[in-house]
Amino acid sequence: MAESRNLRPLQSAVALAYRSGEPAPKVVAKGRGLVAEQIIAVANEHGVHIHESKELVSLLMDVDLDRQIPPVLYRIIAELLAWLYHIEAAQKSGMPLPPPPDTSSPLTEEDQNR
């Protein structure tokens, strides 16, 4: 008799870091399965905000570790960084948190043609 299991899809995670003065954020961690879970756990432990976007993670998984994100992703990552700054400001002032940006289609048609 075949046993039916509830297998959840393999989770992926990518961590970005941006330092002032650098031209673009870098991919500092990425992985699937247990590694992805560890990336998320470490982010949670350190109070790092997490944004879920399968489409964006898929694109970022193609970037080598310690490499800057490609220019085609600058716009969407800039929107995410702006969202994070708004979250920090809202937390300090007691205002409601802003909604996350829509990253379901991280590349515009113009970006895709580059």
Automatic annotation (TrEMBL):
It comes from Pseudoduganella ginsengisoli. InterPro entries: T3SS_substrate_exporter, T3SS_substrate_exporter_C. GO terms for biological process: protein secretion. GO terms for cellular component: plasma membrane. Belongs to the type III secretion exporter family. The keyword Signal does not apply. This is Flagellar biosynthetic protein FlhB. The keyword Transport does not apply. Residues 93-114 are annotated as: Disordered. SUPFAM superfamilies: EscU C-terminal domain-like. Gene3D superfamilies: secretion proteins EscU. PANTHER family: FLAGELLAR BIOSYNTHETIC PROTEIN FLHB. Keywords: Cell projection, Cilium, Flagellum. Transmembrane segments: none annotated.
